[in-house]
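Hi,

Apologies if this is the wrong queue. I'm a grad student, and the batch job for Ring-cleaving dioxygenase from Aliibacillus thermotolerans produced an output file that my downstream script rejects. I'm not sure whether the problem is my script or the file. Here is the sequence I used:
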Amino acid sequence: MKKTEGIHHITAIVGHPQENVDFYAGILGLRLVKKTVNFDDPGTYHFYFGDDRGNPGTIITFFPWPNAYRGKIGGGQVGVTTYVIPPGAMSFWEKRLDKFKIKYEKSKRFGEEFLQFEDVHGLKLEFVEREEGEQNEWTFGEVMPDVAIKGFGGAVLYSLHPDETIRSLEKTMGLEKIGEEGDDVRLKAYGHIGNIIDVKRIPLERGQMGVGTVHHIAWRAKDKDDHLDWQAYVRKQGFRVTNVRDRNYFDAIYFREHGDILFEIATDPPGFLHDESYETMGEPLKLPPQYESYRKRLNQTLIPIEVRTLD
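Support response: The file is valid. Your script probably expects a header line. Output copied below for reference.
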């Protein structure tokens, strides 16, 4: 039986690109580690935000669609993206959300306190304090390493068929069921970050893809050989899995589990430092070889953005 270490990245659809950058870099203090394009739709940006080095388990990625229709969060989607922060950092984030007039609520689940809020385009986010996970060394504005987001705590999955989703997580991805509470079932991967998944056990009305919704959740594979093993293993489990796709910073395969959530499995290497330096990550527009000849046109059509301090 194969086991994933946890979440590699989560990809969502948002609205105006500058609003997206302002929220995740300017307010949340994440680093824009890569500015590129959607390899399947090069007229659209693809942004990657994470810790200072863009480590797996810290990366949230976005396709910005300015003026696109608003989606509907529901069954067949990641409902809530959970970020883990250092113990003692919650009061800092409450004050910071207040500063930027972002409404939030507090709730408890499995003995943990969560700070829940939405981003500028309606994505549901939450903070939780945990010891697990390495300190994020990135400093941006008032967000210092001692309070900075470490990466993903995990996610809350909304399923059309929760029992099937739980079965996929246990039997295919190798997570372990560790608790049940009310309408939530909690599962855990063996890694130290992006490792806690809560599944709503009540089926939800189908979501609608659009701005403010998660497109897919990606799980970690160690390397190319492990990735090919995963492809064969997922196929053996009865899922229709894609061919391997080269995403420049990782290889990817995709399949839709039987609760209708789109799963990806992505390789940890080569990562985000193979085509630029640590110091310049996220600054230039990086293009894969097949789109390099379109650079001038893309620079003219893509909306200019800048990473700016909002404090």
